[in-house]
Amino acid sequence: MKQLAILLIGLTILLSGCGRASSLQEGMEMPGMAGMAGAGSAHAHSSDAIAHFAVTADRYIPNEEATITILIQDKWNKPIDAFDVVHEKLMHVIVVSRDLAYFEHLHPEHTGKGQFEVRTKFPANGYYQLIADFTPQGMGETVQTHWVTIGGGSKDTKPPSLKPDTSLAKVVQGRQVTLAFDHLMAGMDLDMVFTIKDAETKQGITDLQPYLGSLGHVVAISADGSDYVHVHPNDQTGSGPVAAFKINFPKSGIYKIWGQFQHRGEVLIVPYIVQVP
Fold first, then answer.
1. 78: Cβ–Cβ under 8 A, 6 or more apart, which residues?
2. How far apart are CA 95 and CA 270, in angstroms?
3. End-to-end CA distance of the chain
4. Which of 1, 88, 146, 163 has its CA 20 to 30 A from that of 97?
5. pLDDT score of 195 more than 60
6. 3-state secondary structure of 208
7. What's the rounded Cα separation, in Å, for the pair 64 and 55?
C-alpha cells in the first residue's frame, strides 16, 4: 500500500469534561532545515483518518505568505470528503511557535476530495507546530499535528523555558480579563473561570458576542508541546462578564493557556502561563 512519508506517530486522544485533552507525540525530531516543511502525516486512535500536511512557500522566510494544505485520507489512502461542522467550521487549525510565544487560530477552506487549504504568515524564524482539529463523519473528533521549520529554525530542540505568571489578570485591547481556578491539579476536572471587565471603568462586560458558536474558546498546550487541550464554556448562551469552563490537564507541568472571546466585533486572545501540580 502506497503511503506518504510519515513524520509523526499516533496521537492519544483523551476525552475530558466538556472538551478534549490530546497527547501529541512526534515520531521524529523536529526538522532542522528550511524546506523540511513538506508533506507529513500523523494518526489519532479515535479515528481511522490520517492527515497529510504540506506547507508551501517560495523561500520559507518570516512574513512571507505560505499555504498550508491538509489532505484527509482513510487507512486505505482514499480521500475522506464528509466532515461534521464543529463550532461553525469543518476544521480548526492552531498554529503555535516552539516557544509558545505565537498563537493563531485558523479555519482552512474545504476544497474537495478531502483537501483543506489556508494561507498564513509565520512571523519569525523557528519551529511551528500545526494542530488540526476535525471530525470526519462517523469517525469521531480527531486531532493531528505537524512541525514546520521557517528560516532554518534552531538546533535547540529543548522545551522552552516558561515562567508561570505571577498575576492572572491581563489587559488586552482595553479589557481586563482575570483567570481563576478552584484549584490546580493534573488529571482531574477543574473549574476555570474568566471574568471580563472594562479595563478603565472596571465595570463587568455583559455583551460578549458568540465566537465560532460559543461564548468563548480555551486552548492549553504543555511547555514541551506534547499535550493539547481545547474546551468550551459550560454555558454556551451567556454574554459575560463571567465565562466558566471545565478543564482537565493530562499531566503535571507548565502550560500556556489562550482564552478567546469576542466583544463588539473584536476577537480577544488572552494568554496565561500556569504551573499545574
1. none
2. 15
3. 45
4. 88
5. yes
6. strand
7. 12
Distance CA(170)–CA(179), nearest Å, equals 8
Residue 182 sits at φ, ψ, to 5 deg, of: -70, -35
Model confidence over 205-233: pLDDT tens digits? 999 999 988 899 999 999 988 899 999 89
| Cell of residue 194, nine digits | 474568566
Question: How many Cα atoms sit within 13 Å of 51 on the Cβ side?
Answer: 33
> What whole-number distance in Å separates Cα of residue 251 and Cα of residue 168?
21
Identify the bridge partners of residue 12 per DSSP, sorted by sequence position.
23
Identity of the residue numbered 152: G
Numbers of helices and strands, H then E, in the chain = 0, 20
Contact at 8 Å (CB) between 72 and 91?
no
Query: What's the predicted TM-score (pTM) here?
Result: 0.81
* Run of H or E including 275: strand 266-276
CA angle 197, 260, 254 (to 5 degrees): 100
**Rounded to an integer, what distance in angstroms lies between the CA atom of residue 103 and that of residue 94?**
7
Q: What residue type is 10 in one-letter code? A: G
Q: Collapsing DSSP states into helix, strand and coil, what is residue 193? A: strand
Q: What is the dihedral of CA 76, 86, 181, 163, to 10 degrees?
A: 60
User: Which residues fall within 8 angstroms of residue 111, CB to CB, at 6 or more apart?
Assistant: 117
